[in-house]
Specification:
Blueprint: H1 6-13, E1 20-26, H2 30-54, H3 59-70, E2 85-91, E3 94-100, E4 107-111, E5 129-134, E6 139-144, E7 149-150, H4 161-165, E8 175-177, E9 190-192, H5 198-220, E10 227-231, H6 235-242, E11 253-254, H7 262-291, E12 297-298, H8 301-309, E13 313-319, E14 325-328, E15 334-337, E16 345-346, H9 347-357, E17 361-365, E18 376-380
Parallel strand pairs: 5-10, 10-11, 13-17
Antiparallel strand pairs: 1-2, 1-4, 2-3, 5-6, 6-7, 8-9, 12-18, 13-18, 14-15, 14-16
Helix pairs in contact: 2-3, 5-6, 8-9
């Protein structure tokens, strides 16, 4: 899983001596990735060098600062990634590089702090979930977010009924199949075999799923992310009966899970879980609306930036698909410009950085999702 961990975001938020260089670029299809990645990075490094020179750095200082990023131009292994985007950060004594599941547009910034706005949708850190896909022939436990999905290593997880029970199977000649329909409920299970009763089959399924549940329980011990079941009856109902996991989702992905790819299972699970994951943001937007007209909320960047700097912003919404150019001087006077000028920064990014440094909650969303209709909206702590 390659979403940005909270620890990495915290490291990028630390105040450090500048200048701070942030570079974003998309990856490209594997057939052309290796030549295209370095070409794009070289172009962006050229932009960074020009901006550093405009700020008065000499050639040697620029070379020292950008050198670790220039080394990536010749590192073929660095470009061997399946992720959609790359983010690079460089300041004196600090270098970080991330491959992430977002197709970042090319961008280079130089400032007193890193440009983190494109990372905000990837750094929420609270939308991880699991999917357990069950069938007689296959067991998959997936770890996912709305953007990614992977298969973690789960010790002693059976791969199938036969692998779990081996010679303990009671129905050697049993042919058992469940509905392939994805409609809720599907068709009832069908059993064929000589002398094999339905109760014996169900007992076999219980023994199979108890072994699955034991492995999953050990893996999920201490975790709180929701778990969505995928599969046909009676497998999902039996598993629900024996599972002790507290955050088992109420709805399931019904039908034959073998017919769904990891990505399809992720997407269907996200449809089930998204309302719950978005509930804190929805409540915050509703609170902003309730407080509109009072001094507890604002959509004015000239008010929000100083408030964020002093830790007054408890919740901030900002549009990741918009820029607001200007500068905040040491006396906290704010200038806003229609187009970037020398020394300007994106004030939306500055508001996010200041808020996050002081423990605020920041939601990076599309502009149409910012309450109040502006590019940013803040709820104050006091």
């Amino acid at each position: 899983m390659n979403l940005l961990p909270a620890s990495d975001l915290a490291e990028l938020l630390e105040e450090r001596p500048g200048p701070c260089v942030s570079i974003y670029l998309p990856t490209v299809p594997a057939a052309v990735r290796r030549p295209q990645g370095p070409i794009r990075l070289r172009h962006l490094l050229g932009q960074a060098g020009a901006r550093l020179a405009a700020e008065g750095l000499d050639g040697a200082a620029i070379g020292d600062l950008l050198g670790p990023l220039e080394d990536l131009l010749h590192d073929s292994s660095f470009w061997n990634t399946r992720e959609e985007g790359t983010a690079l950060f460089r300041a004196p004594g600090f270098t970080r590089a991330f491959h992430l599941p977002a197709a970042f547009p090319e961008r280079c910034t130089v400032g007193d702090h890193f440009f983190l706005k494109p990372l905000l949708p990837l750094a929420a850190g609270d939308d991880r979930f699991y999917v357990l896909a069950l069938s007689e022939n296959e067991v998959r436990l997936l770890e996912a977010t709305c953007l990614e999905v992977g298969r973690p290593v789960v010790r002693d997880l059976p791969t199938s009924l036969s692998a779990a029970l081996g010679e303990q199977k009671t129905a050697q000649n049993l042919q058992y199949h469940t509905a392939s329909s994805t409609r809720a409920g599907g068709r009832p299970a069908v059993y064929h075999g000589q002398g094999v009763g339905e109760e014996a089959v169900k007992e076999e399924l219980h023994r199979y799923l108890r072994r699955v549940e034991a492995a999953v329980r050990r893996f999920l011990a201490g975790r709180k992310a929701p778990l969505v079941l995928a599969g046909a009856e009676p497998l999902v109902s039996i598993y629900r009966e024996i599972s002790g996991y507290a955050n088992l989702a109420g709805r399931v992905i019904s039908g034959n899970s073998e017919r769904l790819s990891d990505e399809e299972l992720r997407d269907r699970a996200w449809q089930i879980l998204e309302p719950a994951f978005q509930e804190p943001r929805r409540r915050a937007a509703e609170r902003f609306g309730d407080l509109t007209g009072t001094r507890q909320v604002s959509s004015d960047v000239t008010e929000i930036l100083p408030a964020a700097l002093h830790g007054r912003v408890g919740t901030l919404f900002l549009a990741c698909d918009a820029d607001l150019w200007g500068r905040l001087d040491p006396l906290e006077k704010i200038e806003i410009h229609p187009a970037p000028e020398t020394g300007d920064e994106d004030l939306l990014n500055a508001a996010a950085v200041f808020s996050l440094r002081r423990g605020g909650t920041v939601y990076g969303v599309d502009r149409g999702e910012v309450p109040g209709g502006a590019a940013l909206a803040a709820i104050y702590r006091y």
